[in-house]
Structure formats: structure tokens, C-alpha cells
Amino acid sequence: MSFPPQRLVIAVSGASGSLLGLRLLQLLHRVAGWETHLVLSSAAVLTAKLELNETRETFEALATQVHSNKDIGASIASGSFRTAGMVVIPCSMNTLSSIANGASSNLITRAADVTLKERRKLVLVTREAPLNLIHLRNMTLATEAGAIIMPPVPSFYLGPCSLDDAVTQVVGRVLDQFNIDVPGIKRWQGSAQE
Ligand SMILES: Cc1cc2nc3c(=O)[nH]c(=O)nc-3n(C[C@H](O)[C@H](O)[C@H](O)COP(=O)(O)O)c2cc1C
Question: Domain Flavoprotein spans what residues (predicted)?
């Protein structure tokens, strides 16, 4: 196995934007050499049904390994299981709060806690609007602990043609955090570009 291990933990929580989690799995599925460990919260399954009319199986089919959110004994619950980091996409305010305050009552929050304690990269694609003071404070706490708060804000300057395009660009920027290149990601080339 190469070092650092080409493993990414992907958690999908119940915030709006299930398509973000699905798109990340779809893009990463096509990248050779990456092992993906997926956890879905029960609220994520509901949101995916309501927003996309998709079931958990659609997400799970794209992952190398699937873990139950109740399985506190899973490999990714231990720091000895090496990974490149973790992304929570989308990240609800509930999951953000647990992570920011060190509460690890399910596998998503335990794996995030492990990611922080091992000083690995933790990207939280937080989705809520507007934000109250509790949300903002939790984002500050998570940032102070080493997480990267990365709300799914489209790069308007790149001229997305559709919501689907904007989602792909957002997910591409999340994957940039792990130095994972996927095709079709637009990049600013300077204002002199044609
Ligand atoms: C359709 C739908 C959209 C939701 N959107 C959001 C959202 O954007 N942000 C958020 O924090 N919670 C949102 N929620 C509420 C969360 O799903 C809820 O707080 C849940 O308890 C989160 O659990 P989890 O963190 O374990 O996934 C939404 C719920 C539904 C059903």
C-alpha cells in the first residue's frame, strides 16, 4: 500500500444538497486508486429521497466500503486505520455541532473526531441559510480544531451553465482539498482569458 493511504472517508448528513454527496461519489468512483469509506446518516437517507428520489443503495453502490452510522466499531472509528482525511458533504448544523463540540455518538461524528485528533484533513461542506450565532460559533470551534468549513457556494465567476454544473464545480473544489483531480473542473485562468 502507498503512503499516505489513498483512502477517503465520506459522510453524507441530512442537510439539503444530497446531490453534492452523490456527485462526489460519482466523480471519485471514476478515479483510480482511491478507496472510499461511506457513512450515511438516517436523515441523509430521508433528504436523498425527498430531493432526488434516490435510495441509500444509489449512494452505496459507488463506495468501496459502506459503514452503518451506528457501527462505532468500524475501521474508520480508529486512528490506527490510516486515511487521507474525511469530508462531510453536505454537513448539517446538527452534525457540525457534534463535531465542533467533540460529541461522538455515531460513526460520522466519531470518524470526524478521529480525523481531527490525528491531524488529518476534515472538510465540512456546511449547508444552512441564514446562519444563526450558534451555527457561526460552531463553525469557528470546528475551524479552531483544524476543520475546513467549505459551504457549497458556486463559483459564479466561472459562469456555471446549470445547477448541475455548479454542483460539479463545488465538488471539484472539495476534491482539490485532497489533491484529487477529476475531469471537467473549470479553473480561473486570469482575467485576460478569452
Ligand atoms: C428536506 C430537508 C432539508 C434539510 N435541510 C437542512 C439544511 O440545509 N441544513 C441543516 O442543518 N439541516 C437540514 N435539515 C434538517 C436535518 O436533516 C436534521 O437536523 C437532522 O437531524 C440532521 O441529522 P444528521 O446530522 O444526523 O444528518 C433538512 C431536513 C430535511 C428533511
Answer: 7-178
